[in-house]
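re: ur question from earlier - yeah i can do the single chain one, its not a big deal. heres the input i used so u can compare w yours
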Amino acid sequence: MSGVSGNQDVDIDLGQLVRAVWARRLKALAIIALGAGVAFTGAKMISPKYRSETRILIEPRAPAFANAQVNDTNSGPLLDELNIASQVQLLQSADLIKQVINGQKLYDLPEFDAAANGSALTDILVALHLKKNPYENPPEERVIDAFTERLQVYQVPGSRVIGITFTSKDPKLAATIPNAMAAVYLATQSGAKLDSNSEATRWLEPEIENLRQKVNDAEQKVAEYRAEHGLLPTNGGSNFATQQLNDISAELTRVRGDRANAEARAQSVRNALSSGEPSDTLQDIMSSQSIQRLKSTESGLQSQISDLQTSLLNNHPRLKSLRAQLSDIKVQIRQETQKILASIENEAKVAAVRQKELEQQVDSLKANSAQAGEDEVGLNALTREATAQRQLLETYLSRYREAASRADKNSSPADARIVSKAIQPVDPYFPKVLPIVIVAAFATFIMTSIVIMLAELFSGRALRPVGLSEEEEREDGEPQSATTGSVNRVGTPSLLATPADDEPVAEQAEDEKIVETNEFSIASVSDYLRGSRAPLAIAISPTGDDGSAATVSLVRKLAEDGSRVILVDMTGSGLPTNLMAEDRKMLGITDLLCGDAAFGDTIHGDSRSDAHFIPQGISDPRRAMRGADRLSLLLDALISAYDLVMVECGAADVAGVSRLTQSKDVEIILSMPEIVEQEFVTVMTEFEAAGYERVVLMSDSNESIENPISRRAA
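and the output i got, formated as tokens:
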């Protein structure tokens, strides 16, 4: 890449990419216009295709004359998803498609013959055996395949409506085919009902004849059984003997009542005569015409006697004559009363004789009725059989009449109806010229921009080293080395090599400028680590505790900037522990490796920041390092909980760092507040030879290491 050395980290200059596209805008517009023109020409060359749709509603339908209370076995609820899906498959069946093809004579149209529409490309593919020869299929199958490719049958979501869509180059045919398919489908459904009715009629005819014969035989057996056992039917539904017994029993009850009534009437008359009481209150006496005449005469005589007593004496002959007549009338009344009593007694005697005769008849009829009841058990069985046969015959006759009434094709409508017929489309649905041109122009613009940007990237004009501003790039003409960045990642020993005695003074001045501008500061390293989002950083302090103190300051700076950071003290002196801990005897990494402390007990908070740290510990370091193989597992656990894990190793070498992690993709920080060039070059060379390329120099002797006010004191 132009202007960038092979070992420098670079960024993509997005502004340069945009400027490159804008600088070539005329060429890009020409290419876009060419692409749009090609798309327009291609869209115009494509044969237009038209699409039309017919919609069918699936619902139960019954004949207009059908009784709403009669259950039609041929029609059931068609509202479930499975039935609708079945109707969709039926509309795509080969038999139905063949009927439409034959009805519309589609086999005569070149559009439906793939072999007739063959192209040179098809012939080449067939010759190379990459495509099946269309002539190998029968003509009928080729037409069906072409028809199926243009047909789409689907269920409208959330409804019982089925859509039939057909695509064709002929707009008239695009509307005719869906309507024809709907008509054939409805005819097929109606024909299925007619076939069902015809089959039912053919099956019922012989069954009805057999049932008629069975009904006649059963009724004949009932009649013969009645005649043989004398079980003559009556109006009440029982047999003759039982009916006769019931009638005589009713008559006997009536006669007994009449006898009791007559005896009571006679007793009341006798009581009146014996006691001398007037008989005017007795119904039987007062209802007699003779008694009424005598009573009238008696009343007249008493009236005359009463009138004459006022003017005549008691011994007057006229009064004596009237009194004699009155006595004679009373005698006649008494005699007539005796006759009425005798008549009532005669009625009671006749009723008693009638009662006796009826009782004798009842006794004789009871035996006959019992025998008739036993005989009637067999009659009932025969009657039930005859009734069952007749009911079955009537049911079959009713079904036969229903099936016969639906023999006409218009009497059995299909369980579906057309809700939307296909109409001849005016505009083709494909190709849509304007959308195709717009999409092609946009795609051409994107591809052209990508090509221009790739050209800029491969030429190196859109790349710049990390950390350089655009103004510096314009002043220098080419990217500077990585050592002048805000954070310096050293990849080779030559970047910070100690200058020889005969090197130009200008380069020494440049090195002095680097140190003076503080571009290896703790703040710069903090910004770099936060920007790189590195999960693990290993700090090496070749110069001793002053480097470890700088590492503590770096951790506090990261915590101050909002990062969740933890420092692991792996130094021999334990300086980070002394700076961050309030108590030197805290459990730490050596206790964890020796198994003397739990993992959570070794994590502590910094006394002067929000950072966490794991101190050196109080266990034997030699015994602890026997378990150094577990360090990588401990670091992995910490990485999952913190944004950054910082391990301060002191003046460690490459071998010691390799025990922490096997990965080379870690941040190596050389903490050297005072740069000792010989030591820096030596350490850098060792780590580069070992494969560590992400090495950062941190040198800031002027920055305060400790915060004079502790967090707890605040």
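The CA atoms of residues 43 and 431 lie 6 Å apart. not sure if urs matches, ping me
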